[in-house]
Write a structure and sequence with these properties.
CATH architecture of one domain: Sandwich
Shape: globular
Catalytic activity: Transfers a segment of a (1->4)-alpha-D-glucan to a new position in an acceptor, which may be glucose or a (1->4)-alpha-D-glucan
Number of strands: 25
CATH class of one domain: Mainly Beta
Keywords: Carbohydrate metabolism, Glycosyltransferase, Transferase
Radius of gyration: 27 Å
Distance between the termini: 68 Å
Protein name: 4-alpha-glucanotransferase
EC number: 2.4.1.25
Strand order of the largest sheet: 20-17-14-11-10-25-24-21
Strand content: 5-15%
Mean pLDDT: 92
CATH topology of one domain: Immunoglobulin-like
Largest sheet: 8 strands, parallel
Structural class: alpha/beta
GO molecular function, one term: 4-alpha-glucanotransferase activity
Helix content: 25-40%
């Protein structure tokens, strides 16, 4: 049999493109049956996906297609299994619409409601339609027909996600970078509450969007990126304000550690140091270990137990993984074999042996949850209509807690990324295992629902990184180059329904980060269900008119409009061209320096002319951050985001894609134009802050009585 994937060579070595031959018809048909694309177009014309790539991707979906004969047999089995099924594993229905069911004549249908109560019975001709007035929820659809029975998850969702009333502006901040005079060397959850109180009460800001606070990988040196976490379900205890824990007042030694934390803070603020997450966590952990020994009062004990009950299996697995990682290291793939799956009996035995450590990590999760709740309450009490916007990363570290707990619904041997495009000819490999679409459907999308529920728990809105992943993701087989991946399709209808249902239950809006390669129709589908997009000023061009600047009245209203993001140059750097110099210094330019500088100068000139055209600048006047934010105000965008470092002219990006140790990604405190770190109090007093806030003030006028709720910096938590 002719094999087109040599299994002996399918390990970690890179496979040359010339050894990735075209796929035969059997393999192509099988790939299509499983939602695997066999060609793609990232802007440079269609590209055929090679046989090796398709075979490796199908293997990650549990399908052996190593030869044409095996592929043909697998396709026949798939067709037979599909034909024999009464129901798909998950059925989606939208409120207000009847949903057709493809069932045999005479089928009996029963809907078991999530909330309990009397089941819905559908018989005769009604058995082929789900009614339009089903209550929203995660129900069970049970069918009996032709002597067969079947059960499926039934997700009934409202057609639209709730959107914010009116238009609002707010800050975009990387929490770790915002230090106060009380934080321990990096921004914490008390700083978050204080920032929200000040922005809402003093400036009339409507929201505060922050970086993902997901739990990071343990161990040192740690990965400072918030977008490659151990768990997306739980936040990282490094963000805790130790002094805000009630038991802190009752432990003298813990208070001594707090005094030592002053040195970490001074190193960043007074000596132009970088944020040292590992040192911060080392000191905080010592304090937290001490505070865990302090008995809790009956009220706090009851609150903790309620949190544990609510957390259920997700919390238990997260705490157990952390306890096991303390003993065996974070890389669970190299743990003793019996510990590599949470359902194994050896895990239950290890949990019993490490019950004190499991309890410690449950307790840490509770403390973070309490302080997150306090921060959102501070935001809304300060008059913010939305409050906090939490960021949901696109995936998790393959060695982390979520990858261990959810390995049955994640694809092994696969990493997500992006195909080659005009900006990156080599493509991207993010090192994050993707959801298996088939396993998600079999699980009724419960893991995805729980993830959205957790993200929305203490938020007025959530931002979904790379929201296009609800439709398709670029899968890169282990050992292959990013150019040798392909897109794998997800049931977007189901993903959107689960998202809409959980957002509806939480009362949260949803913002999708839809920058980069976006398939036609995706933005329209997202907008149909109320998902706001992301529009960055510098990218808003009319490409049908030769790339001319897009006039403000033609911007889409359903978006968060910004001047930059954590991965892009700051506004100050755009206005001076400093971002080009930085990339040249680090060897990241794809063209000669002079060409890049000319392109940046021409881009800025385009926007200056547009600012003059609509009356925001005088002829010959240089562009300013205030003028650019005024331009965003002139668009119909529902939300306008102000990059917090723009208030003090910080020219440095927080993250510079394409670098690792060449640039201090995710470790920079907010600084002014000279590079001097600025505290939260200094940001509040900065002239640039007042200027930008005044520019955007019309977006959210203070409601009656708002001034009575004003709180000076320092009054949070």
């Amino acid at each position: 049999m002719a094999a087109y994937l040599d299994r002996e060579q399918a390990g970690s070595e890179q496979v040359p493109a010339e050894d990735n031959p075209p796929a035969p018809p059997e393999l192509t048909a099988l790939a299509h049956a499983y939602g695997v694309d066999t060609r793609y177009d990232a802007g440079a014309g269609p590209v055929q996906v090679g046989a090796r790539t398709l075979t490796a991707v199908l293997a990650a979906l549990g399908v052996d297609a190593g030869t044409p004969e095996l592929a043909a047999a697998a396709l026949e089995r798939h067709r037979a299994q599909t034909a024999a099924r009464l129901l798909p594993p998950t059925v989606v229905a939208w409120q207000g619409r009847r949903t057709a069911l493809d069932l045999p004549a005479g089928a009996d249908v029963r809907i078991e409601l999530e909330q309990g109560g009397e089941d819905w019975e559908l018989t005769d001709e009604h058995a082929h339609w789900l009614p339009a007035d089903l209550p929203p929820g995660r129900h069970v659809l049970a069918v009996r027909a032709d002597g067969r029975t079947a059960r499926a998850a039934l997700v009934v969702a409202p057609p639209r996600i709730p959107e914010p009333d009116g238009r609002h502006w707010g800050f975009l901040a990387q929490l770790y970078s915002v230090l106060s005079e009380q934080s321990w060397g990096m921004g914490d959850l008390a700083d978050l509450a204080e920032l929200a109180q000040w922005a809402g009460a003093e400036l009339g800001a409507g929201f505060l969007q922050i970086n993902p606070l997901h739990a990071g990988m343990p161990g040192a040196p740690s990965d400072p990126s918030p977008y490659r976490p151990s768990s997306r379900r739980f936040a990282d205890p490094v963000h805790l304000r130790v002094e805000a824990i009630p038991e802190y007042a009752r432990h003298e030694e813990a208070r001594d550690l707090a005094r030592r934390a002053r040195l970490l803070r001074e190193e960043v603020l007074e000596h132009d140091g970088l944020i040292d997450r590992d040192s911060v966590w080392s000191l905080k952990r010592q304090a937290l270990e001490l505070l865990h020994t302090v008995p809790r009062g009956v009220g706090r004990e009851a609150a903790y137990r309620a949190f544990v009950r609510r957390g259920g299996e997700w919390l238990e697995r997260y705490a157990v993984w952390n306890a096991l990682a303390e003993e065996h290291g974070a890389g669970w793939h190299s743990w003793p074999k019996g510990l590599r799956h949470p359902a194994n009996p050896q895990v239950a035995a290890a949990k019993a042996e490490s019950k004190d450590r499991v309890e410690f990590h449950r307790w840490l999760a509770w403390l973070v949850d309490e302080q997150l709740r306090a921060a959102q309450r501070a935001a809304t009490d300060a008059g913010m209509p939305i409050g906090l916007i939490h960021d949901l990363a696109v995936g998790v570290h393959p060695d982390g807690a979520d990858a261990w707990a959810l390995q049955d619904v994640l694809a092994a041997g696969i990493s997500t990324g992006a195909p080659p495009d005009a900006f990156n000819a080599h493509g991207q490999d993010w090192g994050l295992p993707p959801w298996r679409p088939d396993a998600l459907a079999e699980a009724g999308y419960a893991p995805f629902a729980e993830l959205i529920r957790a993200s929305a728990r203490h938020a007025g809105a959530i931002r979904i990184d790379h929201v296009m992943g609800l439709f398709r993701l670029w899968w890169v087989p282990e050992g292959a180059r990013p150019t040798e991946g392909t897109y794998v399709r997800y049931d977007a209808e189901a993903m959107l329904a689960v998202l809409a249902l959980e957002a509806h239950r939480a009362g949260t809006a949803v913002i999708g980060e839809d920058l980069g390669t976006v398939e036609p129709g995706v933005r329209e589908r997202l907008a149909e269900h109320g998902v706001l997009g992301t529009s960055v000023l510098w990218f808003e061009r009319d490409w049908r008119a030769g790339g001319a600047v897009l006039p403000p009245e033609r911007w889409r209203p359903g978006c968060l409009a910004t001047l930059t993001t954590h991965d892009l140059p700051s506004t100050a750097a755009r206005l001076t061209g400093e971002h080009v110099e930085l990339r040249h210094h680090l060897g990241l330019l794809a063209r000669p320096l002079s060409e890049e500088q000319d392109a940046a100068t021409a881009e800025l000139a385009d926007w200056q002319r547009e600012l003059v055209r609509i009356g925001l600048l005088a002829e010959g006047e240089p562009a300013t951050p205030e003028a650019l934010y005024a331009y965003l105000l002139a668009t119909p965008a529902k939300l306008v985001g102000v990059w917090l470092p723009d208030t003090v002219g910080d020219p440095r990006p927080q993250n510079l894609p394409g670098t690792w140790d060449q640039y201090p990604n995710w470790r920079l405190p907010v600084a002014d134009a000279t590079g001097t770190p600025r505290t939260l109090d200094a940001l509040a007093a900065a002239p640039g802050t007042a200027g930008i806030a005044a520019t955007l003030a019309p977006l959210n006028a203070l409601p009656p009585g708002h001034a009575d709720r004003r709180t000076p910096p320092g009054g949070a938590v």
